[in-house]
Amino acid sequence: MTTQTYDLIVIGAGAVGENVADYATRSGLQVALIEAELVGGECSYWACMPSKALLRSPAVVRAAKSVDGAAQAVTGELDVAAVLRRRDSFTSGWDDSSQVEWVEGTGIDLIRGHATITGVKEVTVGDTVYTARHAVAAVTGSAALLPDVPGLAEARPWTSREATSVKQIPQSLVVVGGGVVAAEMATAYQRLGAAVTLVARSGLLGGQEPFAGELVGASLREMGVDVREGTSPVQVSRTEHDTVEVTLDDGTVVIADEILVATGRVPRTSDLGLENVGIEPGDWLQVDDTMLVHGTDWLYGVGDVNHRALLTHQGKYQARAAGEVIAARAKGTELKTEPWGAHVATADDAAVPQVTFTDPEVASVGLTADAAAKRGLDVRVVDYDLAAVAGSALHSDDYAGQARIVVDESRGVIVGATFVGPDVSDLLHAATIAVVGEVPIDRLWHAVPSYPTVSEVWLRLLDAYGRP
Known about the structure:
The structure is a single chain. The protein is α/β, with parallel strands linked by helices. The protein folds into 3 domains: 2-40 and 96-143 and 266-347, FAD/NAD(P)-binding domain, CATH 3.50.50; 153-263, FAD/NAD(P)-binding domain; 360-465, Enolase-like, domain 1. It has helices spanning 15-26, 41-45, 48-65, 80-90, 97-105, 160-165, 180-191, 210-223, 312-331, 347-350, 369-374, 390-395, 425-436, 441-444, 457-465; strands at 2-11, 31-35, 109-112, 116-119, 122-125, 128-138, 142-144, 172-176, 195-200, 226-229, 233-238, 244-248, 253-256, 258-261, 265-267, 299-301, 353-356, 361-366, 379-385, 402-408, 413-421. Strands 1, 2, 3, 4, 5, 6 and 16 form a 7-stranded mixed β-sheet that branches. A 5-stranded antiparallel β-sheet has the order 17-18-21-20-19, with helices on both faces. Strands 10-9-8-14 form a 4-stranded parallel β-sheet. The termini are far apart.
């Protein structure tokens, strides 16, 4: 066994781990970054980038067909092979050379292999023990949850990894789940030519405003997806013809070429060696706002692994704070841990933005009306029909959507916003700034939206709310 020492050891070189290492290195620490798979991680190769590439081409065709004059120019069919080639370009053909080049260019030491925490501030990879002078950051992410359904594991189910890296679109697909991955992949595969059945026991897009799931569900049905809500699989088998037979708890049977399971995530902590430092393996890591794991003064859990907000952009936000706070603690400099300080990730509590790239899109930030009420806030909800905005009519001849803001009346500030409609992701950052900045409603009247754009919905929402 050989030994090497660094200021900080980061386990996991996905987008989040890269950012922890980068920000700590910028602050002068000597950092090792350990990765057992591809540098760039889940988002680059099996999640955000390839999934949105699969969704984008069909969305462009749909947008053109929704505007008279442009619709007449769309005379051919979607080139599925070209869509898959474009997807491959965004994953660099699952080659991480460019990501490795970036890591090495920053002065971070990249170590290939499986990391095991073997003691306090000690990580072992193969025959080498790496010790940290100051901290170890576990940035190992999450993996797809496979529910305990008889026959499912043996039926070779897809997870999000297989769904986003497929080489050929199957003729038919069963999607199990009702969350973001399930809704997005049902949208993508139906548009790419598969016959899709979506089995969603608890409905669609739970945790969002109810109208989001309702509008997305209606759209999925309109495009031809067989949406089965309120039911779930009780038996799955791979047949002799290599199809999948799924028996549902309502007694019906669905047969398809493939089955995609998108029912949640589990932390990648089961083989990390946490038991060697008194932490239960397989659990989510419980952390404070600086990402420091409870009960330790050296172990940090950043990104999906801490279960605060399972989104790449939120993980990278946590990573920026963690990289800088680790360096600050190493140097003994003053910490900025007050709410919204530089060394904390306080936005993870009530200001998380998220876009679901279905058709229509769902863009939301902050608290839903229900979540705000459960926190004891003095809630007022304001809704507006997005299609009634002049900019929406120009954007699409068949524009349909809805907007909602959730106001804390006691403070006169917006604590949540949700938009459903074509390209509403472009509205989200303004809402995020309003929520994070706690911009008073009376001040928002002076943020004048340009005409004629979809953003004029902000004026209409304020009109509906009325002067404070």
